Amino acid sequence: MQDLKEKAVLVTGAASGIGRATAVEFAREGADPLILSDINPKGLEETAALVERLGCRTVILPADVSDYDAVKEMASVALDQAGRVDILVNVAGTAIISPLELMTMEEWKKVVGVDLFGALHTVHCLYPHMLERGSGHIVNIASVAGLLALHPYNAPYYLSKFGTVGFTEALMLEASAHGIGVTCICPGGVKTPIYDDSPFKGFDEEVREKVKKLMLASAEEPEDTARAIVDAVKKNRYLVVTTPVARAGYFIRRHFSLAWFPLMRAVSRRFVDGLEKYRVR
Question: Which domains are assigned to the chain?
């Protein structure tokens, strides 16, 4: 089991939610320093304050992970100030809830840019550093939505998360030969600001609360996800699916696929019909 004391950990999406909870959990394990990145400087300051109370040094590096040049600069400064990055945790994410036909290419690119290319950018910049040192660990936060599609109107998120799962598995196959751990975390619902921050396009605002209520019905706290992340790094586990509902869905999808797709078509039709009266024409 890996000892996390004095490990330099870089967390993206660290201003709130899973990212903040993960930074705090690593600090509790003795990791030091914590390198915190996000597009929200105020949130980063708040996370840094929580981490520093635990006796851990912090490096705050605001950056948009969808911008490769910004990530390259962030990685360079992180290595300069911390000397190394032992553990990289890619948490930054976004979403848009919308029928396919209403989404612009710019909206597709925004979600994919953060949720998929954000992880690719940081790995591209920091994986060579880990190869040189012959050690390290990379954690990509995907989602159960990277293993199965659960409801309509979330296509860019599914595209990004399925891609993240595939990218992370490919990375694991190469990195493991060089002593570098790789973990893919696939949470179910998590109580984070993403449900409030994501655009809902083509629907009355009332739909946001309905979808949020549905998604949060079986959701876990960010701290639960953070503990799963840290435990996976310590034990060098590759795939972790959190929440009982997510694990059950993944099990059924894998072992009963012939029944899964007719079931999901029926469920999706009810979902679409139920939201039809809230469509903005």
Answer: 9-278 (3.40.50.720)
Q: Distance between CA atoms of 118 and 37, rounded to whole angstroms?
A: 12
Instruction: Name the 3-class secondary structure at 59.
Output: strand
Contacts of 188 (CB under 8 A, 6+ apart): 144, 218, 219, 220, 241, 242, 243, 245, 246, 247, 249
Cα–Cα dist 64/44, whole Å: 13
pLDDT digit of tens for each residue in the chain (281 aa)?
Answer: 789 999 999 999 999 999 999 999 999 999 999 999 999 999 999 999 999 999 999 999 999 999 999 999 999 999 999 999 999 999 999 999 999 999 999 999 999 999 999 999 999 999 999 999 999 999 999 999 999 998 899 999 999 999 999 999 999 999 999 999 999 999 998 988 887 788 888 888 777 777 777 777 778 999 999 999 999 999 999 999 998 989 999 999 999 989 999 999 999 999 888 888 888 86
Tokens of 163: 């891609």
SS3 80: helix
Q: Are 14 and 25 in contact (CB under 8 A)?
A: no
* C-alpha dihedral, 151 to 157 to 158 to 159, nearest 10°: 150
- Nearest-angstrom CA–CA distance, 126 and 26: 19
User: Active-site residue numbers?
Assistant: 157
For residue 278, the SS3 value is helix
Query: What is the model's pTM?
Result: 0.94
